[in-house]
Design brief:
single chain; alpha+beta; BirA Bifunctional Protein, domain 2; Rossmann fold; 2 domains; 8-stranded mixed beta sheet; 5-stranded mixed beta sheet; about 35% helix; elongated; binds histidyl-adenosine monophosphate
């Protein structure tokens, strides 16, 4: 036999055993987003490459080396698998004039693609839940996003293992002033700069501050701080955000080196970080990006948002021991014989009409092996049908969990027997 084909490196299958945790997380998120008035937006996975170049910035790691970009052979256009959701969300809002009657609170979820070196918590296809508030200026939306995320960590039981890092990048003028000072400072320390830093010296010196290279750490620590260049408006915005966090009792750490890997930010930037996941500890990140709507061709509109990495958050949930029970059916339908098999299909539909979850044993097999499967399925009841029962429209109901005798009854009575004790709570995942 030929070698079996494997999935693309860094792109994961979601197996049935893992699905309940994803479903629990997604269901919880839907309720959480509704509570804050955010509405869903779905955009294509594929966009024109120009969108990401313009939004994220030409001299960023994402655009320079991480995008899955290819030329569509049919029309010669350069296409890119989306590496993040903000650019597409803004593009769609402009294209469909969503902001014509004021600000919009939006959310999206789905796979993103970055050609990074795969490791635990870092994948080439990963999933984000993101939210974008488009058309809102004041610091209140920045604060809302931080309150939202803090609530989510509480809902998930993760508050104790995630902390907030915060910074302000100020406006364009303060960044330009800071940039000049940074370039001069880095030039004065050229001997310590690594190749990456030298390359970025004039194109994106701010990103040098983000370097993890240990030999550059002391020099980077002492570099001119953007915070010292912030003008009054930026400082007032930042103070209001900090005040909002203090009012809500949310702890944070100011990290002057937090500059983010995408170019569209101004003023508030933040990351929620855990030390329980090793090197890939940022589970959620975002900030304000007041210039992006205009940069992508829309009528100028301020905006802010964030996105979380689903794999990282679920990894953290697993790490702290949250594991949903495997979803089990109410009934496993055992059927032995030709007439029984026909009747079982019908009985399954009747049981489902009554709201029960039913797994029909398929593919034949003896009574003993089917009962083993019934037990392993986690079902509360085995509903057993032989040709004998089928001929008179009856079934045998055997409780598989807890007390109770096997009973042979008419199908309608079986519905009652299996339905007994099912409350909405008992069908919840947790
Ligand atoms: P980002 O920091 O590039 O921001 O990504 C957000 C989150 O996605 C990260 O904090 C991390 O949890 C997750 N993530 C990123 N790359 C990977 C990867 N290779 N494997 C697994 N997880 C990953 C953005 O994407 C911005 N669009 C966020 C935003 C929204 N800012 C404003 N609005």
């Amino acid at each position: 036999m030929s070698n079996p084909l494997r999935a693309v490196r860094g792109m994961n299958d979601l197996l049935p055993a893992e699905a309940p945790l994803w479903q629990y997380f997604e269901t919880l998120l839907h309720g959480w987003l509704k509570a804050y008035g955010y509405r869903e937006m779905r955009t294509p996975i594929l966009e024109h490459t120009a969108l990401f170049k313009r939004a994220i910035g030409e001299v960023t790691d994402i655009v320079e080396k991480e995008m899955y970009t290819f030329v569509d052979e049919l029309n010669g256009e350069s296409m890119t698998l989306r590496p993040e959701g903000t650019a597409s969300c803004v593009r769609a809002a402009i294209e469909h004039t969503l902001l014509f009657d004021g600000g919009k609170r939006l959310w999206y979820a789905g796979p993103m693609f970055r050609h990074e070196r795969p490791q635990k918590g870092r994948y080439r296809q990963f999933h984000q839940f993101g939210i974008e508030a488009l058309g809102f200026a004041g610091p209140d939306l920045d604060i809302e996003h931080l309150l939202m995320t803090a609530r989510l960590w509480r809902l998930l039981g993760l508050s104790d293992c995630i902390h907030l890092e915060l910074n302000s990048l100020g406006g364009a003028e303060s960044r330009a002033r800071h940039r000049e000072k940074l370039i001069a400072y880095f030039q004065a320390h050229e001997a310590v700069l690594d190749e990456d830093a030298k390359r970025r010296l004039h194109s994106n010196p701010l990103r040098i501050l983000d370097s993890k290279n240990p030999t550059m750490q002391a020099m980077v620590e002492a570099a001119p701080r953007l915070m010292d260049e912030l003008d009054e408006a930026a400082l007032a915005h930042f103070d209001a955000v900090k005040q909002g966090l203090d009012d809500a009792g949310i702890a944070y750490k100011i990290n002057p080196r937090l500059v983010r890997g995408l170019d569209y930010y101004n003023d508030t930037v933040f990351e929620w970080v855990t030390d329980r996941l090793g090197a890939q500890g940022t589970v959620c990140a975002g900030g304000r990006y007041d210039g992006l709507v205009a940069q992508l061709g829309g009528k100028p509109a301020p905006a802010c948002g964030f996105a979380m990495g689903v794999e990282r958050l679920l990894g953290l949930l697993a790490e702290v021991g949250v594991a949903p029970p495997a979803a089990a059916p109410d009934v496993y339908l055992v059927n032995v014989g030709l007439a029984a098999s026909r009747f079982a299909l019908q009985a399954g539909e009747t049981l489902r009409d009554a709201g029960l979850d039913v797994v029909l044993h398929g593919g034949g097999g003896g009574f003993k092996s089917q009962m083993k499967k019934a037990d392993a399925s986690g079902a509360r009841y085995a509903v057993i049908i032989g040709d004998d029962e089928a001929s008179v429209g009856e079934v045998s109901v055997k409780p598989l969990r807890g007390e109770g005798e096997q009973q042979r009854v008419a199908l309608v009575a079986a519905v009652e027997l299996c339905g007994a004790g099912v409350s909405p709570a008992s069908t919840d995942l947790f």
